[in-house]
Design a protein that fits this description.
The chain is mainly beta. Helix content is 5%, strand content 35%. The chain is built from 4 helices and 22 strands. Strands 6, 9, 10, 11, 12, 13 and 14 form a 7-stranded mixed sheet that branches. A hairpin with a 6-residue loop joins strand 20 (422-458) and strand 21. The chain starts with 25 loop residues before the first helix and ends in a 28-residue tail after the last strand. Residues 2-102 form the Tectonic-1-3 N-terminal domain. It comes from Aptenodytes forsteri.
């Protein structure tokens, strides 16, 4: 019962006032007002059973969660002493009479009385159930990744900052942890957790409860010196074990990064590990290790998300294009552009430079981060020798970048194939009244780009998600006229982005966080939150 939690409805998220939710941190619990499920038990018909009691210590600062495991006795005379007949705990489909099995069923159930007891009361759980022989297993979200001996380990700090190797890696749960491990040069060869072999010697089960195994291959090895310099080794097929050399222990594992490739049916087909190896001196008593795991579906490219599902403040706004030939094929409807290293891959903004020279700032872009209002700009020095058309195109490329996207993802985790999850960018043009005497004939040049992102809170009041509903890009132009020979003029070029919350306000007299003094069944809103 300590592992049961009937109010845990959100995956990998804390449910409000759910004191048994393992995803709730101490900071989350400090905001609870009560425990929605104060007691968790099994079958109420049992004579004696364990009961998990949850409560809040409101006198503590901040409030803390109190957990007790007690023995609960059923006062009823008629109670179940032991559930040793497992088949009685669920209904089985009755066997339908046919011409082939009618005589057998008549012999078994045709008399005045018959027994429903199984032929054997042996409750050996290790024996395979015949009904499971043809059952197909697959990994589901959050299920620990099984190996030949136990599960794939992803060491992490538990109570203190020291590493615990009992943390299993969950399927499709991207994790990154750091922890401290005690070491010594004299015993470095005997400490399993600092050896590469500890992290790759156990094969992964392709699917749970199967005999098909996937070996963990070494993808890369990086060696870090005592001063922090890192070097990528050419050959990654060599197993480097810890060893003592000149009062140093080398080939100590400082970091492990797993990458798991899986199919859409929940089967793991490939596993790779990248290592960072280092050295310690005899003065070192501990080291800091870092661990990471990521997942990629086969035949797809890894796409970093900006939220799940709603946008997270500070993460890039995801954008993309509609390829030629749409709507065929639908699978490549959008080229998701989310890599920070690619200047053409996001909804970006002109990046200001120290010298403020527009012509020198070409190509310098910065990604637009959700929730961050930004403004940047530069100064354009115009001479009489400049031509209108090339200057106009140069300024457009400067403001919008070489490839301005057509669509923006409404959610932080919008997938390319989900057409309705992408918002088209609306383009507007305005003209200023200012006139610069530069060219012989008037010339319209763009001088500013203003992007407005309208978003709203989507979902429940308890856990609202940020959703983009409209994006508008406004180009402002101005008119240039003739400038005397030998004269120069400097005009400002600006670009900006503004995020506007258009969520509907609460009605007058309505409390934003109402308190309801009534208890509903825990599954009243299922499957909705």
């Amino acid at each position: 019962v300590a592992k049961l939690c009937v109010c845990d409805l959100l995956v990998a998220q804390c449910d409000v006032n759910c004191c048994c939710d393992p995803d709730c941190s101490a900071a989350d619990v400090s905001l609870f007002t009560t425990c929605s499920v104060p007691i968790v038990t099994g079958d109420s018909r049992l004579c004696s059973q364990k009961a998990a009691i949850y409560s809040l210590d409101v006198e503590a600062n901040p409030p803390e969660r109190i957990f007790k495991l007690i023995d609960q006795v059923n006062p009823s005379v008629f109670c179940i002493h032991a559930t040793n007949y497992k088949q009685a705990l669920s209904f089985s489909s009755p066997e339908m009479p046919t011409s082939e099995n009618f005589d057998q069923l008549l012999k078994q159930f045709g008399s005045a009385s018959f027994s429903a007891e199984p032929d054997s009361w042996n409750m050996n759980t290790d024996a395979q159930n015949p009904s499971d022989a043809n059952e197909t297993y697959s990994y589901e979200y959050g299920v620990p990744i099984q190996t030949v001996d136990a599960f794939l380990r992803l060491p992490s700090p538990v109570v203190s900052s020291w590493c615990s190797d009992a943390n299993p890696a969950g399927f499709l749960v991207n994790q990154a942890t750091k922890c401290i491990r005690s070491v010594s040069v004299e015993k470095c060869g005997n400490i399993q957790a600092v050896s590469m072999l500890f992290y790759i010697n156990s094969s992964i089960l392709a699917v749970p409860k199967s005999s098909q195994m996937v070996n963990i291959t070494v993808q890369s090895i990086v060696v870090q010196s005592l001063n922090g310099m890192r070097t990528l080794l050419n050959g990654s097929d060599v197993l480097r074990l810890p060893m003592i050399l000149d009062e140093l222990c080398i080939n100590i594992v400082l970091g492990v990064s797993y990458h798991i490739t899986y199919t859409d049916t929940g089967e793991i087909i490939e596993a790779a590990a990248s290592f960072v190896l280092g050295a310690i001196s005899k003065e070192a008593l501990s080291i800091q290790q870092s661990f990471e795991i990521s997942f990629t579906q086969v035949n797809t490219k890894p796409v970093p998300l900006s939220g799940n599902p709603g946008y997270v403040v500070g993460l890039p706004v995801r954008a993309g294009f509609r390829p030629q030939g749409y709507p065929f094929p639908v699978e490549i409807l959008f080229a998701a552009l989310v890599l920070n290293t690619n200047k053409y891959s996001q909804l970006t903004l002109l990046q200001s430079t120290s010298n403020q020279d527009c012509l020198a700032a070409q190509g310098a872009r910065t990604p637009i981060l959700f929730g961050y209002n930004m403004i940047s700009g530069c100064k354009l020095r115009i001479t009489a020798a400049m031509k209108c058309q090339p200057l106009t195109q140069t300024l457009l490329d400067l403001l919008k970048g070489q490839s301005f996207p057509e669509y923006v993802a409404s959610f932080g985790n919008s997938q390319a194939q989900d057409v309705l999850d992408w918002v088209p960018i609306t383009h507007l043009h305005t003209s200023e009244q200012r006139i610069y005497n530069t060219f012989q004939s008037s010339c319209q040049i763009p001088v500013s780009l203003e992007i407005e992102v309208k978003w709203t809170k989507y979902g429940s009041l308890v856990n609202p998600q940020a959703r983009i509903v409209n994006v508008t890009a406004t180009i402002t132009t101005t008119t240039l006229k003739q400038l005397p020979p030998g004269r120069e003029r400097t005009i400002p070029i600006t670009s900006s982005v503004v995020f506007t919350d258009i969520s509907s306000p609460a009605e007058p007299g309505y409390k934003a966080w109402p308190t309801i003094n009534a208890k509903l069944p825990f599954d009243f809103f299922f499957p909705f939150v």
